[in-house]
Amino acid sequence: MDGQRWRLEGRAQLHWRSLDDEWVVFDACSGDTHRLDTLSAAALTCLEAGPHDLDHLTAVLASELDLPDREGLASRLERLLEQLRNLGLVEPAIP
Amino acid sequence: MILSEVPETELARRIGAEGLILECGPFVVRVSSPIAAIPQGLGLLYADYPVLDNDAFADIHIRLVRHRRLGPLGAPQVVFDFDGERPFSPLPLAHAWPCFEWALNWSIASSANYYLVLHAAVLERGGQALIMPGPPGSGKSTLCAALTARDWRLLSDELTLIDMECRGIVPVPRPISLKNQSIQIIRSYIPDGVLSRTVHYTAKGSVAHLKPQSSDVRRAGDNAKPGWIVFPTYVAGAAARLAPRSRADTVLELGNNSFNYHIQGQLGFETVADIVEASRCYDLEYGSLDDAIAAFERVAGTRS
User: Fold this and answer.
1) Which of B4, B37, B124, B251 has a 20 to 30 A CA-CA distance from B269?
2) Of all helices (H) and strands (E), which one includes residue A67?
3) Is the same domain home to B89 and B122?
4) Which residues of chain B have pLDDT under 70?
């Protein structure tokens, strides 16, 4: 994953809704609706704005969500990116 | 004119010939069949429904006919004819009445795409809708029938129609489908309720239909606003337990319990999210009807 940049899946068209402390997002391309926790929603929103590598994503989210354990966060994000890829929401950015 | 004002012989004649045109919530339905169980069932359960002139435009055509082939052991069969298509397998002729109800459900669920259609019972009190999704066995129709006897207005026991423009819940009050043990439970719970003859050995077991209250049929034009969404689960012997549930998960579950969410795109998503956002959402586990009804009274006390 070193230096690998991630981006929103090319065809995804996301529509968001915040409900209490969770998020639901509808992908108009796939027709799928997903329930996301705060970290997943923040990561996906960040990638929606543009491609990021894991280090940059970790730095942004640690700051945004006030999470001091960067090492633990990076490890969670690594797993999360794979899950979001399996859902067809993100993909590795081709340089 | 309502159906009970049509003389019995004229009712049977029309249904057996050009068809009878009924107003059923927002739908106009033409019913035709040479099978005697159909005018009998309509006369019993649809007595309060408006009947329209024969030149009225019908949204839905339900035609039940005898199948040309006999079934197992040489028994006669009924088949649902939908504009020349036959979406159901033939059923024993004795199942003609439930076949009519299933055919009408299927026709609405598969064609009313102006609405977002949920597979859920829905009732109303104080202008607010109680949406009750639930898989078979959750007891939603039993609960729905019992609630209609406790000052809740029936909007539907099976199909929740949501107007995607105004987010209103649109009534389509119809007879409530009861199965197996629920039939006797509701006979005891609503002693003056009018039920159709029980039909045994259907694909869903024994089936009978409860006539909706006249006042609920008359108010079929009064939409409701979203109020509560409750997912019931029957657990034998359990005490009633009402717990708030995640709204985000409720959005997903309503989508999963919809007949046409998958074709509505962003509008369907926004509609479901708006309905959920405007509702209080609960899981209800219950083991007795009285406990469940008491829990719904608590739900009704929590207005959005």
Assistant:
1) B124
2) none
3) no
4) 302-304
Using DSSP, state whether B97 is helix, strand or coil: helix
Q: Residue B67: what pLDDT?
A: 86
Residues of chain A with Cβ-Cβ distance to B265 below 8 Å are 28, 31
| Helix, strand, coil percentages for chain B (3-state, nearest 5) | 35, 30, 35
Q: What is the ipTM of this complex?
A: 0.92
Count how many residues are written for chain A.
95
Question: Are B72 and B127 in a shared domain?
Answer: no
**Predicted model pTM:** 0.94
Q: How far is B263 from chain A (nearest CA, A)?
A: 8
Structural domain boundaries enclosing B62? 3-111
Written as one string, the DSSP assignment of B188-210 is HHSTT--BPPPEEEETTEEEEEE
User: What ranges do the domains of chain A cover?
Assistant: 11-87
- B35 with B164, same domain: the answer is no
For chain B, the domain total comes to: 2
Test mutation, A35, A36, A40, A87, chain B, max B CBs within 10 A: A35
Q: Which of A19, A34, A36, A40 should we substitute to test contact with B (largest number of B Cβ atoms within 10 Å)? A: A19
Residues B283 and B134 in one domain: yes
Per-residue model confidence as pLDDT tens digits over B87-108: 999 999 999 999 999 999 999 9
Residues B168 and B208 in one domain: yes
